[in-house]
Structure formats: structure tokens, C-alpha cells
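Supplementary Methods S3. Complex input for the heme C-bound model.
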Amino acid sequence: MSNISLILKQFSRSVLLIAGFAILGFSARAQGDAAKGEGIFKANCTACHKLDQKMTGPALGPVITADTDDKWLTKWIQNNKALIAAGDAKAVKVYNDNQQGNMTVFATLSDGDVANVLAYVRTEYKAMQEKAKAAPATAAAADSGPSNLVIFGLIAVIVIAFIVILLLNKVIGTLERLLLNKKGLAVEEVEVDDKAAARKAEFKKLLKNKKLVGFFIVCAVICGGSWQWVTLWNTNVHTGYQPVQPIKFPHDLHAGVMKIECQYCHAGAFKSKNATIPSLNVCMNCHKSVDRRMDASAPSTEIAKIYTALGYDPATTKYDSTKAKPVQWIRIHNLPDLAYFNHSQHTKVGGLKCQTCHGPVETMQEVYQYSPLTMKWCIQCHKRTEVNYKGNAYYDNMIQVHDKIKRGEKVTAAALGGIECGKCHY
Ligand code: HEC
Ligand code: HEC
Ligand code: HEC
Ligand code: HEC
Ligand code: HEC
Ligand code: HEC
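Predicted complex, serialized as C-alpha cells:
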């Protein structure tokens, strides 16, 4: 039965090879042209175009992905006005279907520049689509060790290995029989009449093969174990959590398309521990006059919920506080009380962007929990992130205190921040 150990050895070698290639494949993302195109696109086009949404100009992702006529696209981008004036049918149609001549002329962009922009738009849009599909799943995978892909890959490899072993066993059996036949030795045939019995006998033979059975028990233990390991690690981890909110508040519209700053609504995020959810009065700064989507003919039922909650009657523009029923937003991110997390320390002092922890909120129709919020997640970032201590009074003070300690001078708790309100109160 050394055949099988040999096979196993070969097999583990191939698995390593395959895994190696897979990792190489994943890391080899498209670069070069698209990377150059990104800068050009951001500098020239983002004022009017987004990849996935209509702004002043059409959403460029789908347009440039579907349109493979790069020559036309280049002419259009370099000088759309000339193309329209020349009566180019496609240009005239785009002109008529849209804002009619609102696009700038980019005569300074070379053919190479435009090719880079096109490459960027296509790769970026493709990535966006894939990310949108996989967003909650990939975020979860970032923390949960082996991804589904790896697990399915392993299972597939095991199944294939099983089939290979069966086939090889058969071949070896036949070869042995041939060899014995050649030597003129009689082969003891299992005396069976029908095929079913023959198969049964074969199966029994396999079951007696201790190494094979052992191999499967080990496989079962590995699979079951990894599954349980992943399940246990993800207990109480709510990545992707997206409760149904009382008002379908679209972040993509407000923070994305309209580009309202996060702190306009989450004023605490730079100043205090809590980012805070805005009161409906903040919404009314705009929604007093905006009662519907720009492209809608009827008032929005979602915006009407703001009015109901405030007891506001848009017909009379009067508030009736007796009718007010505060909106009960459902909290998405929630650390247990045993952990202290302070937003201002991370955004203001640490200089981190909201998106580092909350993901691309400005593209989310409704917010979901992007990061796992596990202790491992906090600690991994603390280990990786370099602190920017330049021009930071706190660290300047630490250096002064450090020098005093070195000189053997008196240092009080106050010098370490012991009289700052926030150290004792929050
Ligand atoms: C000042 C606003 C503005 C800027 C800046 C701008 N565009 Fe446009 N773009 C438009 C508008 C508006 C249209 C629709 C045509 C029209 O109304 O003239 C358009 C149309 C297009 C189209 C054709 C879409 C179709 O349906 O076939 C492409 C491609 C395009 N733009 C690419 C670009 C690229 C690339 C850049 C940056 C180099 C850019 N645009 C910068 C406003 C702009
Ligand atoms: C116009 C107001 C407004 C703007 C601008 C805004 N938000 Fe919000 N945000 C809300 C409201 C209202 C909620 C509560 C409803 C919900 O969860 O969707 C919320 C919820 C959230 C939550 C989930 C809170 C929880 O329950 O755990 C996060 C995270 C968040 N916003 C991040 C951001 C970020 C990052 C930005 C900027 C890119 C931003 N928001 C911009 C109004 C706003
Ligand atoms: C700076 C102005 C502004 C603020 C502040 C603002 N909104 Fe809006 N909101 C708009 C505009 C403008 C639209 C319509 C956009 C469009 O049609 O493209 C809109 C659309 C909406 C919609 C979509 C309605 C539909 O039928 O799809 C909802 C829901 C909404 N807002 C809720 C809120 C809530 C809740 C708040 C407060 C947390 C808020 N908005 C704060 C300007 C604002
Ligand atoms: C270092 C990671 C990190 C960064 C950066 C960050 N947040 Fe948070 N955010 C969290 C965590 C963790 C929670 C849960 C806090 C809790 O339950 O006590 C949270 C909760 C929230 C909440 C809901 C609860 C609350 O605190 O009111 C909102 C809204 C929010 N964040 C918005 C923002 C905005 C806006 C920014 C950017 C200005 C931002 N966050 C930056 C990690 C972060
Ligand atoms: C994306 C990176 C990142 C994540 C995720 C993150 N932090 Fe931080 N954290 C920082 C940085 C950077 C600082 C240092 C800021 C400074 O003081 O310069 C910091 C500082 C802190 C401090 C102050 C440490 C001290 O000695 O002053 C605490 C407490 C803290 N974080 C708690 C948490 C908790 C709890 C979580 C998880 C819920 C978390 N952080 C997640 C980046 C992160
Ligand atoms: C060394 C810790 C510490 C520091 C620093 C500190 N406090 Fe206090 N503070 C306390 C304690 C403890 C109490 C409760 C005392 C009591 O109940 O008798 C308190 C009570 C208070 C109260 C009264 C609360 C009430 O319900 O009566 C206020 C207001 C207050 N502090 C504000 C501040 C301000 C403002 C600062 C910064 C200038 C500050 N504290 C700094 C520890 C501290």
C-alpha cells in the first residue's frame, strides 16, 4: 500500500503548487495604464461624472464598458464640441439625450492619456460592481481567516484526490493482474455471477484498506474542525448587519451624490466619544422645502415620515408637538460596554477617515456594519498604524515629561493629563 502514501506525497505537492499559483493570480491586479488614468480622471472628470451614477454627465462606468469604439470615445473626450459640430450621428445623439453641450473640451489630453482614462474607468467600474456584490462577504472574510473560496477549494481538491486514488487503485489492480498473467500465474478471480456483487466485493476491499479509510477520517476531522473554528470565531460578529430602518435614509444620495460632509450630520465624530445620529431638525434644514426626489412627480413617502415624526404639516408649514413621534433608528454598530471606544481620538487625533472603519458609506443605499468590531480588529490596526505625533500637544507634553523623569525632577499626575475633564468624565 505504499502506493497511496506516494500518491499522497505527490498530491500535497500539487496542492501547494496550485495554492501558490492561486495567490499569485489574486495579487496580480491590473495596473499601469489604469493607475495613470485614475489621476487624470479625478483631476478632470469627477466634477461632472461618476462611474456608477448620473451627475451632470452620464454615469461613465456602464457607458465606457459597453462602448468599445475607443477611437470615437477619444475624439469625444478630446473635443466633443467639434464632433457635434461635424454632425457625427452618435455625438449628436449623446448631446440631445443629455445636457446638450455641457461637457468641457479636453484638447490637452493626448491619445495616451485618454487610453489610460478608459482603462481606469473600465477596471474601476468592474471592481466596483464586484465589490458591491461581495461587500459584506469580503469584509467578513477579512477577519474570519480562511475565506469560503479556500474552503470550497479544499473540498474540491479532496473530492478530486478521492477520484484519482480510486482510478489509480483500479489501474494498479489491472497492471498487477496483467503482470501475473504474463508470468503465467493464475489470477484468483472473485467468483461472482452478477456485476452488483462484484462491485460490492470491490467496495469491501476498499473498506479494508486502512490507509484509505484513515485518510477519509482525517479529511472529515479537518473539514468539520475548520467549519466549527470559523463558526465559533464569528459568533457575535455582526459584519454586514443591516437592520431595516424606520426611514430608508439613503447615504449614497446624501453623502455620495450631494457630497454632504459626514460631520454635518454626525457632529460628534470629531469632537467626542460618540459620532451621534442627527436629530430630525437637521434633516429639516433641507426637507422643509424638499419633499420629493428631483425626478419624482409625487411627494416621497419616506420624507413624509420625517414630517410625521416631527408633527409637521407641510400644507400649513406648522409644527404640532403633540403629534410628534420620534424616529427610533436601529443602532447598527454596537460595542459591548466593557470596551471603550472614542471617535475623536481616532478621527481628530489619529487622522483616520470614517471609511477606514465604516467602509464606503457614501455608496451605501443603507448603512451596514462593514468592519467586524472584534478585539482582533482593533488590535491589528493598532499594531499596524503609525502614530502621527508631529505638532500634537499631547505628545509634546509626553516628551517634556519624559525629559523631567530622566533628570529626576518631580512629575505629578496632573502632568500626565490627570486634570483633563475627559480623563475622568465621558
Ligand atoms: C463640465 C462637465 C463635464 C466634465 C468636466 C466632463 N464631462 Fe463628460 N460629459 C458631460 C456631459 C454633460 C455629457 C453628456 C453630453 C452633453 O450633454 O453634451 C458628457 C458625456 C460624456 C461621454 C459620452 C457618454 C455617452 O453616453 O456616450 C463620455 C465618454 C464622457 N463624457 C467622458 C468624459 C471624460 C473622460 C471626462 C474627463 C476627461 C469628462 N467626460 C469630463 C459633462 C462633463
Ligand atoms: C444628511 C445626514 C447624514 C449624512 C451627511 C451622513 N449620515 Fe450617517 N447617518 C445618518 C442617519 C440619519 C443615520 C441613522 C440611520 C441609518 O442607520 O441609516 C446614519 C447612520 C450612520 C451609521 C450607522 C450608525 C449606527 O447605527 O451604527 C454610520 C456608520 C454612518 N452613518 C456613517 C456616515 C459617514 C461615514 C458619513 C459620511 C460619508 C455619513 N454617515 C453621512 C445621517 C447622515
Ligand atoms: C443638505 C440638504 C439635505 C439634508 C440635510 C437632508 N437631506 Fe434628504 N434629501 C435631500 C435632497 C435634495 C433629496 C432629493 C435628492 C434627489 O432626488 O436626487 C433628498 C432625498 C432624501 C430621501 C429619499 C426620498 C425618496 O423618496 O427616495 C430621504 C429618505 C431623505 N432625503 C431623508 C433624509 C433624512 C432622514 C435626513 C436627516 C437625517 C435628510 N434627508 C437630510 C437633501 C437633504
Ligand atoms: C477607528 C475606527 C472608526 C473610525 C475612524 C470611525 N468610526 Fe464610527 N464607529 C466605530 C466603532 C467601533 C463604533 C461603535 C461604537 C460603540 O458602539 O460604542 C462606531 C459607531 C459609529 C456610529 C454610531 C454610534 C455613535 O457613535 O453614535 C456612527 C454614526 C459613526 N460611527 C459614524 C462615524 C463617522 C461619521 C466617522 C468619521 C468622521 C467615523 N464614525 C469614524 C469605529 C470608527
Ligand atoms: C483603523 C485603525 C484603528 C482601528 C480599527 C482602531 N483604532 Fe484605536 N487607535 C488608532 C490610532 C491610530 C490611535 C492613536 C491615535 C493617537 O492618539 O495618535 C488609536 C488609539 C486608541 C486608543 C487610545 C490609546 C492611548 O493609549 O491613548 C484607544 C483606547 C483605542 N484606540 C481604542 C480602540 C478600540 C476599542 C478599537 C476597536 C473597537 C479601536 N481602537 C480600533 C487606530 C485604530
Ligand atoms: C481626576 C478626575 C476628574 C477630573 C480630571 C475632572 N473631574 Fe469632574 N468629577 C469627578 C468626580 C469623581 C466627580 C463626582 C464627585 C461627586 O459626586 O461628589 C465629578 C463631578 C463633576 C461634576 C458634577 C456632576 C454632578 O452631577 O454634580 C461636574 C459638572 C464636573 N465634574 C465637571 C468637570 C469638568 C468641567 C472637568 C474639567 C475641567 C472635570 N470635571 C475634571 C472627577 C474628575
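Residues 206 and 212 are 7 Å apart (CA to CA). The longest helix spans residues 148-182.
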